[in-house]
Amino acid sequence: MFAGGAHMNSSGFRAVPVGDAHVFNAALRKTYPVVSHGEGIYLYDTDGNRYIDACGGAMVVNIGHGVREIADAMAAQIGRVAFAHRGQFTNEPLARLAALVAEMAPGDLDVFFPVSGGSEAVETAIKLAHKYHRDRGRPEKRRVVARWQSYHGNTLGALSATGFSVRRAQYASMLLDFPHIAPVYCYRCPFGRRYPECEVACATDLERVIRQEGAHTISAFIAEPLVAAAGGAPVPPPEYFGIIRDICTRHDVLMIADEVVTGFGRTGRTFGIQHWDVVPDLMVVAKGMSGGYAPLAGVIASRQVVETIREASGLFSHGFTYGGNPVAATAGVAVLEYLRTHRLVERAAEMGTYLHERLRTLAAHPSVGDVRGLGLLAGIELVRDQATRVPFDPALGYGLAVVEEAMTRGLIVYPGSGTVDGVAGDHILLAPPFVITRDEIDLVVRLLDETLAATEAKHLRA
Ligand code: PLP
Questions:
Q1: Does any ligand 1 atom lie closer than 6 A to the CB of residue 356?
Q2: pTM for the whole thing?
Q3: Which domain holds residue 186?
Q4: Co-location of 325 and 406 in the same domain
Q5: Is residue 408 packed enough to be buried (19+ CB in 10 Å), middle (13-18) or exposed (0-12)?
Q6: I need a labelling partner for 380 at 20 to 30 A (CA). Which of 71, 301, 346, 448 fits?
Q7: Ligand 1 centre and the CA of 13: distance in Å?
Q8: Per-residue model confidence (pLDDT) at position 4
Q9: Is residue 218 assigned to a domain?
């Protein structure tokens, strides 16, 4: 569908044709606009169309698109050295990144293991938790407890922890036997109760599962502070993570916070878990760490976990070729310094308050069931009936229809399905760059208002 064809460029080489005939996109029947460039909260395609990136792609872009000084820092590093293998060298940008991360992370979380993406980071945390127990003479502790309606990545270990039924389904027979507990989901409490009379049963349920499965087999518990793609940003009650922390400690189970989406300011605090004033043993980070400027992720481990391994075997046998490469590390340093210099975490909190205030006006739409989230991470759960909270028939793909309708208006929002029980339920996510202004938030909400009205006209009243 794209314009252009093979032609010679000025240096006499055959230029690559503009088109994606040779690109293996996951959605093989879909065509995409060709991105040209980005600036601030906007992306532009090669046809000259402008889009508001109201979800930072996939909750990635925090400092905004096209920040010159990040590109300059990366280019300068490439000019010095682009790659040196982690088995042979360490490098200064990596040391600076790890020091910055240690300064930003809570408690004694101050040792950073670098990788390139969120799934790699989750795999690393799964193995690291096991390695910690193994080095303490408890090698049978290898299973990770996770939650339903969660997303931790697409590699097989991370997918085993993931509680996103649709993504698991086709690979179920290949997955590890990781137990799952109920999600935090007050809008549709899995226990049919209401807060606070529920006594946060969704947290105390972890104890039941650990006992039933046998604490001697469980290495860790993993959870996103706010579930993004698989849940539409439901906010856990104030006691939730304190209860979880206590259960983990009592059963010698490491607590892993998956901060891939919530890390580095997205929810208005540096890390999402800080809203609950709890320090996990391991934190998984990615996306916002480099704001999309380079593939960069990692595990921030507590000093105690790392020292235990150092003193026992002295070796964590794990890693990836690109982990800790100096160019990605340079992007991370530049982005985190930019975040601090421009006080963007504080800005995410302030703009987040305004965004949520404005989004609540959308509740007038019959398809809007719930508006939730923290900071600049907002979820809107879509329902067929506001009063009864009945979801749409999954076959309708209502969430996707909203996303496509928004795209025709130049607004990019992130779809999610299976919100209710892994199969039924739709939501959309908003996660704009932190540099968004009040006027731009007004524009996003106006376009969303039009989008919801148009989608309802097509599907709800049909
Ligand atoms: N964990 C969470 C909470 C995520 O949202 C994602 C991706 O969206 C991942 C892990 C996996 O990250 P990646 O897609 O970089 O492998």
A1: no
A2: 0.95
A3: 69-341
A4: no
A5: exposed
A6: 346
A7: 38
A8: 35
A9: yes
